[in-house]
Design a protein that fits this description.
The protein has about 260 residues and is α/β, with parallel strands linked by helices. It has a single domain, classed as Vaccinia Virus protein VP39 (Rossmann fold, 3-Layer(aba) Sandwich), CATH 3.40.50. Helices cover about 40% and strands about 15% of the residues. The longest helix has 24 residues, at about 50-70.
Length: about 260
């Protein structure tokens, strides 16, 4: 497993931690996998603040996905760069078709913990290539999730991936989190992914970048740390998180964009 793939254990640890605490996100599958794997993370990768942040991000993605499925129950859900995430279980199993896509080494690991069904499939592929689309049925609409993925792709790679999706599906709903250029600069100084050997990441200047040559239209920016989730924390932790990890500096580092075509 290469260094980029190893980053999947950072959010896995974070989700397992908050789930055991009974706050922000209930994720028994993350607890199960983490207990089994016990990957020796170090440094900032095991920060409780990072765990809170990533679990809030996951919860926001979950809520958005549920809302889109309520609107479009026959849509195909594509979770690109799924890692070991259990969103398919957290969101629910009454789905037309849910497809998790990641590198072959990740999918091989994933298949130790997840089983395919009529409504759930796992596909091993590099999402930059987009060859997995050849195996998908034509559908009017797809709900596309890219969580913690875009920062490992250049702007051009990301745009090509979106362009292929726009060509394959008549309608798309997309949620993607992105680093800003400022975050890319700061990551050289302090970033948990450095602890697993990742040193090269990419940022998006603004939301309009991903509209160019992709067929996508920017809809809105979401907050990664909504107040109702911050309120899951108590006392000193809540104060520090709100003013440091969800403060103005954080908003300069990280964006969460929604698009449609």
């Amino acid at each position: 497993m290469n260094n980029v793939n190893k980053t999947l254990y950072i959010p896995l640890y974070g989700k397992a931690l908050v789930s055991k605490k009974g706050i922000i996100l209930s994720d028994k599958k993350a607890e199960e996998i983490w207990e089994s794997e016990q990957i020796p993370l170090k440094g900032k990768s095991k920060s409780k603040w990072l765990a809170y942040y990533m679990s809030m991000r996951a919860s926001v993605f979950d809520t958005w996905t549920k809302e889109k499925l309520a609107q479009f129950p026959d849509a195909i859900v594509l979770h690109l760069g799924c890692g070991l995430d259990s969103r398919v279980e957290r969101v629910g199993d009454k789905l037309a078709l849910w497809i998790d896509v990641d590198f072959p080494t990740v999918i091989n690991e994933r298949k130790r913990y997840y089983k395919e069904t009529e409504s759930y499939r796992m596909i091993a592929d590099d999402i930059r290539e987009g060859t997995f689309l050849q195996d998908l049925p034509k559908s009017e609409r797809a709900i596309v999730i890219l969580e913690g993925v875009s920062m490992y792709l250049t702007n051009e790679e990301l745009k090509r991936a979106f362009s292929k999706l726009s060509t394959h599906f008549s309608r798309l709903s997309v949620l993607v989190d992105c680093y800003t250029p400022f975050a890319v600069k700061m990551s050289k100084i302090k970033n948990p992914i450095n602890d697993v050997g990742v040193t090269k990441v990419y940022g998006i200047e603004n939301s309009s970048v991903l509209e160019i040559d992709t067929g996508l239209t920017f809809i809105k920016e979401h907050t990664i740390t909504p107040q109702y989730l911050i309120d899951e924390l108590k006392g000193f932790e809540k104060f520090v998180f709100k003013h440091v990890y969800a403060g103005k500096t954080s908003k300069r580092l990280y964006k969460l964009y929604e698009y449609e075509n």
